[in-house]
Amino acid sequence: MNKDIHVVVLMGGWSSERKVSLTSGKGVADALRERGWSNVTELDMGRDVASRLAELKPDIVFNALHGTPGEDGTVQGMMDLMGLKYTHSGLETSVIAIDKELTKMVLAPHGIRMPAGRVVSSESLHQEDPLQRPYVVKPVNEGSSVGVAIVTEDGNYGNPIGKDVEGPWQHFAELLAEPFIRGRELTVAVMGGEPLAVTELKPKAGFYDYDAKYTDGLTVHICPAELPYEIATAMMDMAARAHQLLRCKGASRSDFRWDDEQGEGGIYLLEVNTQPGMTPLSLVPEQAKLKGIPYGELVERLIAEALA
Fold first, then answer.
1. Sign, CA torsion 165/181/101/132
2. Domain contains 20
3. Active site amino acids
4. Does 234 lie in the same domain as 123?
């Protein structure tokens, strides 16, 4: 691979995941330079991103954005119009995968088990529960567990949920309500269409929310997860199938809950992330390392696939 080509690492932006994206982007740029790439530019995305990319004339854009508009198809469509090559998934995949309801519409008919749920107005939550408690509400199109709330019988949100109580209902007009799946939190990375491993995530308190994902020491990663062989295999197969059905490119990461009292029938796919994190705490680099792929090589593989 020609290490003299111009790589622009696109990161930052203005989503709720800006800080994580900046960390991912810096990690990618540093790794490329350490491996002898001579022409790497870090670009913190602003509203002038199109003109900046036109000035920089990259041979490849490493998309290290997280959340909207870098993960929802907006930036992908812009780069398609500009004729730029970029890492990770394209426009159509990004539009579908960022939307949890659309993702279900694509995957569920193919036998991929996902929690049943429905989109509700946030205002309606203050009149009555949309589902029997416990249930989960989350924004339809945010990642990294941003805005997720678990509503239980004895929680502090009230019954019905109080309008003045802090929660995603104060920040989003609509939310996806799903039954709460008891059990274990697990995730599978897929790269080049092949599943890498299963990681179990054990938050030291609460659940695997945004802070637990990106604050060192708040979550224990068990990689590979200590699971029965048939459960791990089924989960990896499901992640690879989701990657294929959604037509993901580069790396994706599928998040699961497993109700271990139900065996294989208790595996539920929650969502597919098309722009998984590349920070020191991120799960894709961790699983790649387990498979003998160091961080720098992982970055190079993503670039090679995008160039091809």
1. negative
2. yes
3. 17, 144, 214, 253, 255, 271, 273, 277
4. no
Q: What is the domain-level CATH number for residue 31? A: 3.40.50.20
Looking at the structure, do residues 109 and 207 belong to the same domain, yes or no? yes
pTM confidence score: 0.89
Question: Could you tell me if 106 and 249 lie in one domain?
Answer: yes
Q: How far is CA 275 from CA 47, 104, 219, in A?
A: 20, 18, 21
Range of the domain at 12: 7-88
pLDDT digits (tens, 9 = 90+) for 129-171: 999 999 999 988 775 456 889 999 988 899 889 999 999 999 9
Number of neighbouring beta carbons within 10 Å of residue 177 = 20
Long-range pairs of 23-27 with CB within 8 A, sequence gap ≥ 24: 23/214, 23/279, 23/280, 24/64, 24/66, 24/277, 24/278, 24/279, 24/282, 25/62, 25/64, 25/278, 27/278, 27/279, 27/280, 27/295
Boundary-marking domain end, from 179, 206, 225: 179
Helix H or strand E segment including 50: helix 49-56
Cβ atoms of 163 and 126 closer than 8 Å: yes
The contacts of residue 46 (CB under 8 Å, 6+ apart) are 52
Is 164 found in the same domain as 24? no
